[in-house]
Amino acid sequence: NDNYNPNWLKFSSNLPSKPRSPILISDFILTLCDVGSPWRSQWAMFKTKIVDMGKAMQWVRLEKRDWGDIFEVLKRPRLVKAGNDSKVYMVGGLKSSYALQSACTTILILRLDLESMDWEEVGRMPMEMYRCFVESSKFKVFGGGNRVCFSAKRVGRLALWEDNCEDGKTLGWRWVAGVPGNGDGLCRGFTFEARLDAMP
């Protein structure tokens, strides 16, 4: 390949603010971006096609009139890659109101169908599980495939939500114990050792 460059390239993202939880899906990248003011967050989703890494990326804001205030109901949303390239999850705290500093009532998982561009609610953290995360100062969301994991300081285990996209059923919520932390009790993701026979 004549264009091969073994060094990392630096280029402007051309986004209004720092991208949050970018994910690679097939030949494009999806990310969330805060397009609000310094006083009030306002989240939007952006997409770019990976064409030529030597050129600046051209981002397109994804929006649909039917979405309404989908980005307003979630506090600190994150994107998580789903099990196939036609879906993506958005996870965040469900706000109790539209007030500037409104408290969250639970964690909500929404699934976006990238073909129809329709959102649907697929998971709502059970209250007894959510209470374990309310007091934590640090909270992480990560996942892959059809699983979304939640980790927090002083919780000592992962909360796992599992989706079965094949038949449209959700497998639900459960605790996963015995997960090694990073010394601070906070799990930030998975280590993936690539092999020819590896399955995510």
From TrEMBL:
A Pfam cross-reference name: Kelch_2
Organism domain of life: Eukaryota
PANTHER family: SKP1-INTERACTING PARTNER 15 (PTHR47719:SF2)
Protein name (record): Skp1-interacting partner 15
Organism the protein comes from: Phtheirospermum japonicum
Phylogenetic placement of the source organism: Eukaryota, Viridiplantae, Streptophyta, Embryophyta, Tracheophyta
